[in-house]
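Entry 14. Ran structure prediction on the chain below.
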Amino acid sequence: MTKSEVRQEIRRRKAACSAEERALLSREVIAKLVATPQWQQAQTVLLYHSLPDEVATHDLITEALSAGKRVLLPVVVGDDLELRFLPTPDALREGAFHILEPTGAPFTDYAAIDLAVIPGVAFTPDGRRLGRGRGYYDRLLAHFPQSPYLIGLCWPFQLLADLPTEPHDLTMHAVIA
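Output, structure tokens:
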């Protein structure tokens, strides 16, 4: 399948899954994430503020802040992502693509990030990722002096045996579905 065909297939699968089913699956995926040593040991985490068609991270963000973790969220700036601190769960405003984005200070100490939790349209068990097609995360992480531990989050129906990828496409250290 082409990238476009995979994206269409995943959209079809998402549409076939009710909001209640996606919420239940999200809670299961997040429970697996927070049980990992990478999550438990991380002090500075890059998360994403989920859209309705992504594994829900809103409660995870609140939990991370309550646990004393430094939480970073991306902000779309033109064709790139900029990282910003999220000081409190409500320090958000609507940004590009109707995504809630943090209003905290910019963050550029990329080497201090212990863990990056990355969304995707689809993943393979060995960590290959297919995004929405704009390359935001690929470009962002290409600027890091060293890669933090990368965990891809997806619902089980987004995990595929194979994906069409290119050399610049991100590979996760782990995928949780």
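The CA atoms of residues 7 and 45 lie 27 Å apart. Will compare against last week's run tomorrow.
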